[in-house]
Every structure is written in structure tokens, then in C-alpha cells.
Amino acid sequence: MKPLPYLAWALGLGLALGPAGNVALAEEDDVTAWRLFVSDHAAPVVHVIDALNGGMLARFSIKGPASLYRSESGRTVFAVQGSAGTVSAISTGIAFHDHGDHGDIDIDDPKLLGLGMTGSKPGHFVERQGLVAQWFDGEDRTRLFTEQDVLDDKANPRSVDVVAPHHGVAVPYDNGAVITIPDPQDASKRPIGARIVGFDGKPVGPDIPCPGLHGSAGSGSLYALACDTGLLLIGQGTGVPVIRHLPYAASLPKGSSSTLIGGRGLQYFIGNYGADRILIVDPSEAGGFRLVQLPTRRVHFAVDPIRAKFAYVVTEDGQLHQVDVLKGEIVKSLKLTQPYSMDGHWSDPRPRVAVAGDRIVVTDPLASTLHLVNAADFTAAGEIKVDGRPFNVVAVGGSGKVHDHAAENQSQP
Q1: Ribonucleoprotein as a keyword (predicted)?
Q2: For the chain, how are helix, strand and coil distributed in percent, rounded to 5?
């Protein structure tokens, strides 16, 4: 694999390769590191790629094709392998430590951890404040555990009763979880509501209706579940969560969201609303819904965690669109890939989007390529070739200070 032109440019400015191949400043203690974790559409493998120079850092063999989820801290990436009935965990090798006036960064090699959680049809993964809820569609219990236990290879999950196997989700909180309620007539249909339960599985308060429940995401202190009638917004209460219903505005055309993502830096949600529109939701106000028309059908979308007012949408004509969530409109578009029709099977290989610092990354599975886009001016910034069909992608990284702690300790009296 050829390194990106960035590497030669960096070395020409006197930069050096830092730990594990990441680019770092040679004479200062500020370091930037970004890594891409990329799963294959068909092969049981996860590639780890240095986003700054395009170099391959690791290749992990797992049990099946995986959906990838990064933890809130960025220390762990979870590979949920639905067809193989397995959940694996990867230490990203990047960790941050907050010291108030500055943040430290530790950079190590990524590694496959000992977690090998098995079960029937693992599905939705949700983390809130360090507690993870891993759902299994084929089981009547969901499992809760902490990221730290996984990193320490001590995972001993609690399990919480979810009544019956169904395609649902659990949202963890300090003393239990919010779980979906299966349709009592036919559990294969979408859930009909949400229930707050303790670790013992017993309800805490009344059930909350949410017909046609499908789609969930977190943004700031809120976690949202999408219903046919609007969103259920879950907030942290005293001891137990507080849930309120945000109905769709009467001004919207008939429809609903079934896929959600949550804003970072700004509190908002984006959902699908028909094949060729997205819905921007301001959860702070009633009627805070805005539709954005897309030129063709939506393939995938993601938010920008750094430039908080932007989100990105790939459409089936091969374009990447920059959406200003404050204005509620597409502001820039860029042709990147061949067309990827949304006709065919829902799980066919199609592009996915992630943001790695100043680069937007779009997978192109049929071309075995990752496309890079400069987030500052929304122009093409290079490509990374990846064997197979690169599909799901998550990015982990940032900037921090690296200290020689051994030298500091020696200098102390």
C-alpha cells in the first residue's frame, strides 16, 4: 500500500513518526493520532488503518462480518457479528486522560481483546456513561457490562429479562435499563413501547407507548427511540430515567423515522423520513422538525463530532453531501463513488461514512477503496486501498500531550 502524499509533506516539515506509526511533532509534546477500523462486507476481518498516512496497522480475524461500534471513550471498538452469533472487542490503542488545563494521549498498538460474547442474533449495541447494553434478537435477556471490565478481560455481564426474543434495544442507566416491549400478539413485529427496569428485571414505573419502535441514538444527555408517532426522549433523572414523548409536528407529511443518529457538540437528531429525505430534530422544542430533500435516495449518514453543525449524507448517485443542521439544508456536494442503487437487498454492500479529525472517510466496497475528503473545504483528499470489500467504518483519535513520565519521576526529589 502506498502512503498518502501527506506523509512526505509531514516529514518535509520536520515531523516524525510517533508511536505505532502515527504522525507526531518531533520537538514538541503535542501529538495527533487517528485510526480507522474497517470491517469487510463478507470476510470475517477488521482492518486497522492509520488515517494520517494510510498505513495498515493491524488486521484482526474474527468469526463473521461485523457491524462496528466505538465506545464513548474511544478506547474500544466492538465488532457485532450477527450471522456468527458473536461480539468481539478491540482495544484501539488510543486513550485520553483529562488533566483540566490539558489532555494527555497514550498511544499503543491495537489488539484483539479476550471478549468473545456469544448468543443468538446479537444486534443493537448501546453505551451510556461507561455501561454497555448488548442486545440479542434471539434471546429473552439483554446483557449489561462495563467497558473497563472488557479492557481488563474481566467481562462478567449482568442479564436483564426482556420478556421475549424480539428485534429491540436496551438503553443502560445507573441501576438498570430502558428496554423495548415486544408486540404481545407477534414478537416478530416491531416493539410497541418502552419499559424502565432495574437489574432484577422488575418494572420501575409505567410502560410508555411507542408503536412501531425502530431506530435509536444518543445526543448529549438524551437518548432517543423512534416511533410511528414521534420520538421517545430518555433523560437522566434522579435514580431512574425520565422519558417524554416528542410528537411529530403536524406540518410534516405522513411518515416516520426508523433510523436515527445523534449530534455531537450540538444536541440534535437526524432520521430518515422517506427514501429521499432526512429529518433534523431539535429535541428542545415542540415542533422542532425540519425536512431536507436529497437529490436521490439516501444510502448512509453520519454527524461531524468536531464541526458540530455539519452532518454528511451519501446518496445512491455516488455523491457525498454536507448538511448544515442549523440551516436545515445541503450546502455542498461532492461526487465520490460509482452509483450504488438502493434497489436490491437491504444488506447489499454500499458506502458508509465516518469522520477522522480533518478527514471525512467514505467506504467504497465495490472499488476496495476508502475515499478521503478534506472537511475544511470539502474537496477530495486522496484514497486508501483496502483488500476485499471495506464496508463499516469507525474512527478513533484526536490530539493530546505525551509526557516522559519516567523522566518526570526521576527528576522529583
Answers
A1: no
A2: 5, 50, 45
